[in-house]
Write a structure and sequence with these properties.
Mean pLDDT: 80
Helix content: 10-25%
Order of helices and strands: HEEH
Low-confidence stretches: none
Largest sheet: 2 strands, antiparallel
Distance between the termini: 45 Å
Structural class: mainly alpha
Strand content: 5-15%
Oligomer: single chain
Shape: rod-shaped
């Protein structure tokens, strides 16, 4: 749902990996504190001492990771194909350059040998 809305409004959509440890990393200093049991809703960073709300900290980390993905150029853009890299039939590359013929030279149309 978010992906098509980003495309509709000219934005960029970045998909963060499900395995990204968003609730285990301190959004202030980057220290990875490890997994926490479900009842824990607040935790204190062992490195910098900041107290975090679990969900707010995870949301900040997802935002930072999304921005990092966009900066690295791996985000999906409106011009990206939905099926990019998923096609099963391979199309052979053209062997001759397309364009206008040069004076005195003949051009060959299509793929030779077919």
């Amino acid at each position: 749902m978010l992906e098509y809305k980003a495309v509709r409004h000219g934005g960029t959509f970045a998909r963060v990996n499900r395995a990204f440890p968003s609730s285990q990393v301190c959004s202030a200093c980057g220290f990875r504190d490890g997994p926490k049991p479900l009842p824990v809703r607040e935790w204190m960073c062992g490195a910098c001492g900041i107290v975090h709300d679990l969900d707010h900290n995870a949301a900040r980390n997802v935002l930072f990771e999304g921005r990092r993905i966009v900066a690295a150029g791996r985000a999906e853009t409106p011009n990206a194909s939905q099926s990019a890299g998923k096609t099963r039939t391979k199309v052979p590359a053209q062997r001759v350059e397309a364009g206008s013929p040069r004076k005195g030279q003949t051009t060959q149309a299509g793929i030779p040998g077919l």
